[in-house]
Specification:
Mean pLDDT of chain A: 78
Radius of gyration of chain A: 17 Å
CATH class of the largest domain in chain A: Mainly Alpha
Radius of gyration of chain B: 23 Å
Helix content of chain A: 55-70%
Largest sheet of chain A: none
Distance between the termini of chain B: 76 Å
Structural class of chain A: mainly alpha
CATH superfamily of the largest domain in chain A: Winged helix-like DNA-binding domain superfamily/Winged helix DNA-binding domain
Strand content of chain B: 25-35%
Largest interface: A-B, 81 and 70 residues
Number of helices of chain B: 6
Order of helices and strands of chain B: HHHHEEEHEEEEEEEEEEH
Mean pLDDT of chain B: 64
Shape of chain B: elongated
Strand content of chain A: under 5%
Oligomer: heterodimer
Strand order of the largest sheet of chain B: 3-4-5-6-13-12-9-8
CATH topology of the largest domain in chain A: Arc Repressor Mutant, subunit A
Shape of chain A: globular
Distance between the termini of chain A: 43 Å
Structural class of chain B: alpha+beta
Chain lengths: 170, 296
């Protein structure tokens, strides 16, 4: 069926979205439910608007509902994939390249942020959505994305500044 | 040991780059596990939302996906899938080159002007409905691409453009070509060529290159729409009638576009070799077929 070609086209993005919103086990379920709900809602799709953010908002909502309904600690528990550059020298102070330890620290700091902060960071940088798409997927006004992101980045920097000691190497 | 505090001191742009890089290195689950059970659920949804189309099952290559995940729900779905297998036949695409037709849930055939009503699944509360232009040459409001002459369309299209040769119809009032080489001929309504669901438009003939990928141009049919296999001068075709339906196609950048400045009324779709044709009119099935057979 034709809709399944849309599923195939967007399932990567949908899984990624669900995962960064609720990475603790229900992302796949959220994606399935999201696609089914989007299918039912096709008649309400605003014609001429982009399909991707519309779909991803539904998936994000499903993921969020699972996180809440499970009553879990809202920790992202995002994991880094295997380090792609083993043996790298420690980055220079101004480098935007992360070494393994830094990645672990940074993930931990993001995981410790409150839900809204994590979500906006995840949408902008992990899903690499623009501001308008982020607003659509998170269901907030664009101005809110801007201010929330600014505060979230500030809090993330604060946590990193306050860091001392070694991260786990897991 | 790296000094992670350095990250806190990075300039904004570099800090953002760091976060993007972190995102690219995330351990996102593989998507391959998602598809099979989902495919089954979608078929069930399609069966629930769209009525079956009797008699089509035999023409369909029904590739039923086996839910691969050892989950109880998947098992339940698999059983449900078996139960609805007959009913779901109409939900499976069957197509002509460049055109796939499915029975789907169908969009609510509301006029564009009423679409500003907010909806929980319509996350664009700020957007306003596209105004419908009322002036302009026939077809100018339909999003058919660029207006050209027939000679230009013939030169630009990646296939031989054909036109109805019935003298009663005459040459098209306007000719359009879009970015993917779809050519559309439009005739204004007039005596003998009654208005279609598009006010003022009497006949629309679209020609699609078959080189368009199979999913390129898709069609959602409303519940209540019927399809009938027909013969158009020896070519396989479908007569789609009884309710408005809409198109989905994928634009050259890969984005699916819900082509819907309008819903489409009675349509004859058929293919000759690698080209698919679509004829919309209010002439009825037999007259549409007769007219289609005059294309040269």
């Amino acid at each position: 069926m034709a809709y399944e070609s849309l599923v195939r086209r967007y399932q990567d993005a949908a899984v990624r979205t669900a995962y960064v919103i609720a990475p603790d086990g229900d992302a796949e379920d959220a994606v399935q439910e999201g696609f089914v709900k989007a299918y039912r809602a096709l008649g309400r799709f605003r014609r001429g608007s982009p399909f991707r953010p519309w779909l991803l908002r539904i998936v994000a909502n499903e993921a969020r509902n699972r996180r809440r309904s499970a009553g879990r600690r809202a920790g992202l528990a995002l994991r880094a994939a295997e380090d792609r550059r083993p043996g790298d020298a420690a980055p220079s102070p101004e480098s935007a390249v992360l070494d393994r330890e830094e990645r672990a620290w940074l993930l931990r700091a993001i995981n410790d942020l409150a839900d809204p902060d994590r979500e906006v960071i995840a949408a902008r940088y992990f899903l690499e959505l623009n501001e308008a798409e982020t607003a659509q997927i998170l269901g907030v006004p664009r101005g809110t994305v801007k201010s929330r992101l600014s505060r979230a980045l500030g809090r993330l920097r604060d946590r990193l500044s306050a860091t001392n000691g070694a991260p786990s190497r897991g | 040991m790296a000094d992670v505090r350095r990250l806190a001191q990075l300039p904004d742009a570099a800090f953002e780059d760091v976060l993007r890089e972190l995102g690219r290195g995330l351990d996102v689950p593989s998507v391959s596990a998602v598809d099979p059970a989902l495919g089954a659920r979608l078929r069930i949804e399609a069966a629930r939302l769209g009525p079956p189309s009797p008699g089509l099952a035999g023409r369909l290559g029904l590739g039923w996906p086996t839910p691969a995940r050892p989950l109880r729900r998947s098992l339940v779905l698999a059983i449900a899938a078996i139960l609805v297998v007959a009913a779901v036949a109409g939900a499976i695409g069957f197509g002509l080159p460049g055109l796939r037709i499915i029975i789907g849930p169908g969009p609510t055939p509301t006029p564009i002007a009423s679409e500003s009503a907010p909806s929980s699944a319509s996350p664009s509360p700020g957007a306003s409905p596209t105004p419908i232009p009322t002036a302009g040459p026939p077809g100018s409001t339909l999003g058919l691409g660029r207006q050209v002459t027939l000679a230009e369309a013939t030169a630009e299209a990646p296939f031989p453009v054909t036109v109805p040769t019935d003298p009663a119809i005459g040459p098209a009032d306007t000719v359009w070509i879009d970015g993917v080489g779809r050519v559309t001929l439009v005739w204004a309504a007039r005596p003998g060529l009654p208005s279609t669901t598009e006010p003022g438009i009497g006949l629309i003939v679209s020609e699609l290159p078959g080189s368009i990928e199979p999913d390129y141009f898709q069609k959602l049919l409303n519940a209540g729409t019927t399809m009938e296999a027909v013969d158009v001068g020896g070519a396989a075709g479908y007569w789609i009638s009884g309710g408005p339906h809409e198109f989905i196609y994928v634009d050259p950048s890969g984005q699916p576009v819900f082509e819907t400045r309008r819903l489409v009324g009675d349509t004859l779709a058929w293919s000759v070799g690698p080209i698919t044709y679509r004829l919309e009119s209010d002439l009825g099935r037999d007259e549409s077929i007769r007219l289609a057979e005059t294309l040269r």
